[in-house]
Amino acid sequence: MSLSNTDILRWLQRSAQVLHENSAYLTQLDSAIGDADHGINMDRGFTAVTTKLASMANADISTLLKTTGTTLVSTVGGASGPLYGTAFLRASIATDNKQELESADVLAMFNAALEGIKTRGKAQTGEKTMIDALAPAIEAGQRAQADDADLSEVLRSMVSAAEKGMKRTIEMTATKGRASYLGDRSVGHQDPGATSSWLLLKTLAETVAGS
To answer: What is the dotted CATH code of the domain comprising 5-210?
Structure first.
């Protein structure tokens, strides 16, 4: 099993729908520890992405990811635009010249995205950010691949680990971003960036399962 450019396009289009459906929820999470705009920003950004991709059915995987990244940078406010934009731009570099993505390629794509986020946000795990969902997801995916799991199983393991990481942010004290201003008062609230990262992973897994 592998991912084609059509699969990636379907993932990005479905992600826009999922983020739209969860816009109020993400904004509610952000209202407790941020600027109360994460859901609104992600919805706006991915709506713009779908508009850009509407005429790109024949584009290769790297171009689809690059277009997504540049669109998010230019349309999403706050920290989410630069962070998610960088993630997709790094993912596009990791998939350059790839016509299809095997499990190893998907893991390399997400690892490149994660490293981009770490560099751009100057953050690490345990600081109550999107990294706390993505890092354990990649580790789980690597373990699954080492056990000869197929792509669908690798993605399911990534989603499960991302969800656990997302929920662990509830008990973390934020030390990066707007939430860090709250100090100990950030404890007890789920990080919105970790939540949107989990949603994107979950949507990819569902896209693969349905293809």
So the answer is: 1.25.40.340
